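Researcher: Next sequence.
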Amino acid sequence: MTLKPKVLTVVGARPQFIKASPVSSALKQAGLQEILIHTGQHYDHNMSDVFFRDMNLPTPDVNLNVGSGSHGYQTAQMLTGLELLIEEHKPACVIVYGDTNSTLAGALAAIKLGVPVAHIEAGLRSFNRSMPEEHNRVITDHCADLLFCPTQTAVDLLSREGINDHVFLVGDTMYDALLQYKDVARQRSDILNKLNILPRKYLLLTIHRPYNTDVPAHLSAILSVLEESGESVIFPVHPRTRTHLQDISLASNIQLIKPLGYLDMLWLEHNARMILTDSGGVQKEAYFQSVPCITLRSETEWVETLVAGWNVLTGVDTNGIRLALHAPVPTVPPPAVFGDGRAAISIATIMRELFGTTE
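Model: Next structure:
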């Protein structure tokens, strides 16, 4: 009897749901059986369930329901649950995405049990060691047996760290997802009408990183520049950010809304005059859609987006933000450096070749 090779996929945060969607489909087409595990790191409906609906992701086989907590607590709870699941399912490989606590927990649980780890979105570096995500991605890369890189830059950075074996330049699965769903978003999303806004007549703002949300002066500085601009600002508020806004008086031109599903967010990004964010995923989605972006950080792991001025780094410097808001729109289209939209197919093909079938 021929059995489908089994892989166990670990996701837990909204960017991972986006990255996993095209890969899950490609794994199925390649004849691989996927066991999908949701750690519950993001558990709010608007941060989790809506993405499974919008992107036709299979319902997770297991939800660990870890929820919020400190980094140590979250990772420990995930490790405990994932170890039991790996022992139960005995997968040929464990797939992890990106740089979250779910990523690290999945990688550690697998290597402790001697199961190969496939890291999708390997090789990224911000070189900011104060970011928990930087530690997660570095440790995961050095644990991984298969490293699937989105760009040549990522391949080169791994090589500098002595990682050269089983490194594959496949492209970015978020780009795969955008190509697959951009027309669906155009057809289905009614978000502009709901918010009573017109294309290119608003700024889109997303903030969630601790150095922007947990320091009142930084959050106030960002919002003050946007108030001063007088432009309409749409601000989907991450749950952890909302608590820090309670003591801040917001100007009437800044409209707070709940986090959006994938299709509505794509359409909102596509039609924005400019995007301001501290999210790595939103930086890329802006770039993919040729929308100018201001990154409210002093560094980015997505250095390719800085080419031709499509993304600029300002941190929380008010003068830098102000200048970027009024800078000319780039005239050179963003270079195509994130693959051809077939990253997921390449990943699934490689895994199929490596793990084959079992009798």
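Model: Residues 71-89 form the longest helix (19 residues). The chain has a mean pLDDT of 93.
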